[in-house]
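Hello, quick one for you while I still have it in my head. A protein chain has come my way and I'm curious about its shape. I'm sending you its amino acid sequence along with the C-alpha cells. I'd be grateful if you could look everything over and explain what you see. Here's the protein in full, and shout if anything looks odd to you:
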Amino acid sequence: MSIDPGQPASVSFRVSSTLPGKVEYKLLDLTGTTLLNIISGHLNKSNHAIEIPVTSLSPGMYFLMAGNGSVRLSKKVLISR
C-alpha cells in the first residue's frame, strides 16, 4: 500500500494497493475512532487507486487502515494546511 503524493496532504491523497477480495479502507484518528469509511467491498487482484479528500479533517496525524480478512495494513497520514 502506498500513499501519493508524499506527505503531508492538504487537499487529498491517493492510496494505491493490490489487496484482493473483500477489502475495507478506513481513516482513523489517534484514539482509533473511525472518521472515514473509505471503501468496503470486493476488489479484483489488480493495482487499484483511491483518491481520498481530506479538506473536512483538521490538521494532524491519522491512520489509514486497510484489510481483506487475511492481511491488515496501516499507514500514518499527516494532514496540514
About this structure: The two ends are 24 Å apart (CA to CA). The mean pLDDT is 87. The domain at 2-79 is CATH 2.60.40.2550 (Immunoglobulin-like). The CA atoms of residues 5 and 59 lie 17 Å apart.
